[in-house]
């Protein structure tokens, strides 16, 4: 297998582990350029991408490469600026696909004007009880831009279809005869553009470009948390567009009232429109999604195989697609359709994934991230409310999910008196019975814990 084929397989698998926005932002214009014994050298377009891939995705990339070639022990990222191509500088909707026999994994089909991927449409979005309201609101907006549900705020866990849905809105509006100007941007990209604009003293140019937009779509808006200057700039951008009846569409992994360190004036703006969630798909919808994906690839698998996958791969839609691709790669490699026994063997890591098991480290990590705290901070013996509450929630989850004893939890938190832990557990339990917001936050945290 040559370098290019290996990297295309890695890219195909990476799409099932990270959000589409992050994938498009950090993995575009990357490739393997050299192998030196046990080291693989990967080119990236700029220093920003190099640092991000090295710090955020190193282990995941290496693990993905190991599924094909476990002799690679080290990765190195080198900067190789992309030269402008002379061929077809029009909209990038005809780019080549990553092809493996009968299987085709779509690469980067991003419209350069809108940043939208044209394959995200309402037609190939599978609707079920878990996303019906979000779908209906999205469809209504695409037909009545800026006049209903403004802003639209869609939240839900990783890999449940938020990016697909908000980009489907953008694609339908962009393709309509009214020729509205649409711009999709990940929140991370938005933040980096603001920071770059401030540093280079040209932020007015970036803000001016946004003022001309009819529909602004920002993915993963929770990344605004704690970034005061960016929140200020976004607040002014939001107001400017809103006052002109321009449509604003936002996605997040949690509702506005659960985003830590979000300015109250922004929270108020977000809550002034339509807030809707996407939850976990039920069995019937998971089965429908599998059949839809197969139909797109013009392939078939036995019904009992599809039923097994739908029954056992429950974490999210992205993992469902990953399981399906594992079967299709086997299909291509062995030129035979996998039966039920083969399917069980191939999907062992999906069905019995260690990520599906809660542990102490994951609970502390997820709770800390959810409330925008450093992991060490949660152990500080302080009475500050913004730290006390996450600490109590961590204690509560250690008791509820891992069945730790109260003294054992106390030891984890620096030898506190176990009566402090009993009080924390009782307090959170009582508040859950009276506070729907806290119950919702706990459910989202648990979903993140069990989904890795």
TrEMBL record:
UniProt keywords, alphabetically: ATP-binding, Cytoplasm, DNA replication, DNA-binding, Lipid-binding, Nucleotide-binding
Residues covered by region (Domain III, AAA+ region): 115-331
GO terms for biological process, alphabetical: DNA replication initiation; regulation of DNA replication
UniProt region (Domain I, interacts with DnaA modulators), positions on chain: 1-100
Segments for region (Domain IV, binds dsDNA): 332-452
PROSITE patterns: DNAA
InterPro entries: AAA+_ATPase, Chromosome_initiator_DnaA, Chromosome_initiator_DnaA-like, Chromosome_initiator_DnaA_CS, DnaA_C, DnaA_dom, DnaA_N_dom, DnaA_N_sf
Single GO cellular component term: cytoplasm
Domain annotation AAA+ ATPase: ranges: 148-280
A Pfam match: Bac_DnaA_C
CDD domains the record matches: AAA, Bac_DnaA_C
SMART domains per record: AAA, Bac_DnaA_C
Molecular-function GO terms, alphabetical: ATP binding; DNA replication origin binding; lipid binding
Main location: cytoplasm
Record-annotated Chromosomal replication initiator DnaA C-terminal domain positions: 359-428
Binding-site positions, ATP: 159, 161-163
Compartments (UniProt record): Cytoplasm
Protein family: Belongs to the DnaA family.
Protein purpose: Plays an essential role in the initiation and regulation of chromosomal replication. ATP-DnaA binds to the origin of replication (oriC) to initiate formation of the DNA replication initiation complex once per cell cycle. Binds the DnaA box (a 9 base pair repeat at the origin) and separates the double-stranded (ds)DNA. Forms a right-handed helical filament on oriC DNA; dsDNA binds to the exterior of the filament while single-stranded (ss)DNA is stabiized in the filament's interior.
PANTHER family the UniProt entry points to: CHROMOSOMAL REPLICATION INITIATOR PROTEIN DNAA (PTHR30050:SF2)
Comment on protein domains: Domain I is involved in oligomerization and binding regulators, domain II is flexibile and of varying length in different bacteria, domain III forms the AAA+ region, while domain IV binds dsDNA.
Subunit description: Oligomerizes as a right-handed, spiral filament on DNA at oriC.
NCBIfam families to which the protein is assigned, alphabetical: DnaA
Protein name listed in UniProt: Chromosomal replication initiator protein DnaA
């Amino acid at each position: 297998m040559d370098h290019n084929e290996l990297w295309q397989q890695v890219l195909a698998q990476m799409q099932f582990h990270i959000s589409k926005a992050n994938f498009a932002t950090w993995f575009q214009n990357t490739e393997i350029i050299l192998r030196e014994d046990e080291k693989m050298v990967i080119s990236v377009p700029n220093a920003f991408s190099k640092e991000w891939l090295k710090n955020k995705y190193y282990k995941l990339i290496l693990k993905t490469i190991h599924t094909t070639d476990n002799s690679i022990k080290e990765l190195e990222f080198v900067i190789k600026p992309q030269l402008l191509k002379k061929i077809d500088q029009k909209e990038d909707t005809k780019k080549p696909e990553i092809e493996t026999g009968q299987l085709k994994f779509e690469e980067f089909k991003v419209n350069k004007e809108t940043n939208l991927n044209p394959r995200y449409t309402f037609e190939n979005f599978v609707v079920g009880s878990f996303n019906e309201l979000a779908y209906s609101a999205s469809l209504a907006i695409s037909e009545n831009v800026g006049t209903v549900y403004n802003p639209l705020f869609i939240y839900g866990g990783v890999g449940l279809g938020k990016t697909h849905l908000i980009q489907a809105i953008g694609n339908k509006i962009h393709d309509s005869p009214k020729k509205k100007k649409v711009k999709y941007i990940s929140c991370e990209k938005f933040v980096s553009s603001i920071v770059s604009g401030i540093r280079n003293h040209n932020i007015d140019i970036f803000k001016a470009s946004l003022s001309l937009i009819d529909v602004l779509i920002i993915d993963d808006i929770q990344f605004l948390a704690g970034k005061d200057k960016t929140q200020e700039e976004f607040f002014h951008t939001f107001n400017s567009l809103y006052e002109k009846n321009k449509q604003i569409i936002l996605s997040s992994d949690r509702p506005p009232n659960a985003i830590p360190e979000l300015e109250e004036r922004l929270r108020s703006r977000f809550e002034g429109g339509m807030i809707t969630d996407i939850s976990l798909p039920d069995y019937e919808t998971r089965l429908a999604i599998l059949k839809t994906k197969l139909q797109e690839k013009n392939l078939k698998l036995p019904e009992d195989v599809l039923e097994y996958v739908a029954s056992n791969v429950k974490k999210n839609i992205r993992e469902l697609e990953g399981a399906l691709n594992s079967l299709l790669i086997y299909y291509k490699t062995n030129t035979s359709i996998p039966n039920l026994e083969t399917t069980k063997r191939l999907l062992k890591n999906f069905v019995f994934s260690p990520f599906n098991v809660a542990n102490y480290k994951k609970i502390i990590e997820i709770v800390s991230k959810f409330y925008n705290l450093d992991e060490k901070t949660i152990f500080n013996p302080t009475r500050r409310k913004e730290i006390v509450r996450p600490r109590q929630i961590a204690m509560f989850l250690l008791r509820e999910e891992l069945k730790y004893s109260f003294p054992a939890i106390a030891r984890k938190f620096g030898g506190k008196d176990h009566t402090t832990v009993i009080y924390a557990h009782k307090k959170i339990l009582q508040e859950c019975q009276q506070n729907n917001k806290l119950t919702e936050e706990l459910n989202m945290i648990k979903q993140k814990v069990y989904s890795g």
